[in-house]
Design goal:
It is built from six helices and seven strands, in the order H-E-H-H-E-E-E-H-E-H-E-E-H. It has about 220 residues and is α+β, with helices and mostly antiparallel strands. The model has no long low-confidence stretch (mean pLDDT about 90).
Length: about 220
């Protein structure tokens, strides 16, 4: 389950003219952390705060195009030599699932639809690695990421109350609601349809809402 090369990533999820992908290397870790602190201050706490810690990259992330057995990949977006964005993904090799962890774009480069590429990029990575499913979380504080997922055919399958915490303003940390968006990459024949008799009444109502006509009654 090899991570795709930059050439493969570019082919399946091209960027606007003048921008390019690059994989993270050790020399870029301090600059990346500094950029994230400015672009995305809300991640100073919570699930994504590991991206502000050098040890996270040294111990868990693919670096210098090596250590490909690691389960985190950080893809940089560059314009010339300037770092203008990044996407972090995590794979689960046992379940063959890819999780889009963190995406961020420099404020100076917003408006060029760079973040629009994130769902497509996660999906492209998943397909290249023959994953069964990809998923990501979208905070319900703002609609932008949810709108991007939905435009690209990802499905909202649930809302988690209090899953993560964010710094909502300086010095104020609160737990937030997150929407779970997924895209299945295998044929429907590869899915075991649940039997209605195995569901509680509440589960059946939700399942029918999310996946109408999919429950098995045989």
């Amino acid at each position: 389950m090899q991570w795709p090369s930059v050439a493969e990533i570019t082919r399946h999820a091209p960027l606007p003219a003048g921008y390019r992908y690059e994989l993270l290397n050790r020399r870029q870790i301090p600059g990346l952390i500094s950029a994230l602190e400015v672009w995305f201050p809300g991640i100073a706490v919570g699930n994504a705060s590991c991206h502000l810690k050098p040890a996270f990259y040294e111990e868990k992330v693919v670096l210098d195009d090596s250590l490909s057995e690691r389960d985190f990949l950080v893809i940089l977006i560059k314009r010339g030599q300037d770092l203008v964005g990044l996407l972090s993904v995590e794979r689960d090799s046992d379940s063959e699932v890819l999780y889009g962890r963190v995406g961020a774009i420099s404020p100076q480069h917003r408006g060029f639809n760079l973040s629009e590429r994130f769902p497509s990029l996660i999906e492209a990575l998943g397909r290249a690695m023959r994953m069964g499913m990809v998923y990501g979380l979208a905070t319900l504080k703002v609609p932008y990421m949810a709108e991007k997922f939905e435009r690209l055919g990802w499905q909202l399958v649930g809302i988690i109350p209090g899953f993560d915490q964010e710094m909502v303003e300086p010095g104020v940390v609160k737990r937030v609601y997150e929407g779970i968006y997924t895209k299945v990459l295998v044929d429907e024949d590869d899915l075991v349809l649940p039997h209605r008799s195995a569901m509680t009444p509440k589960t059946a109502v939700l399942f029918d809402l999310l996946f109408p006509g999919k429950a098995s009654v045989a």
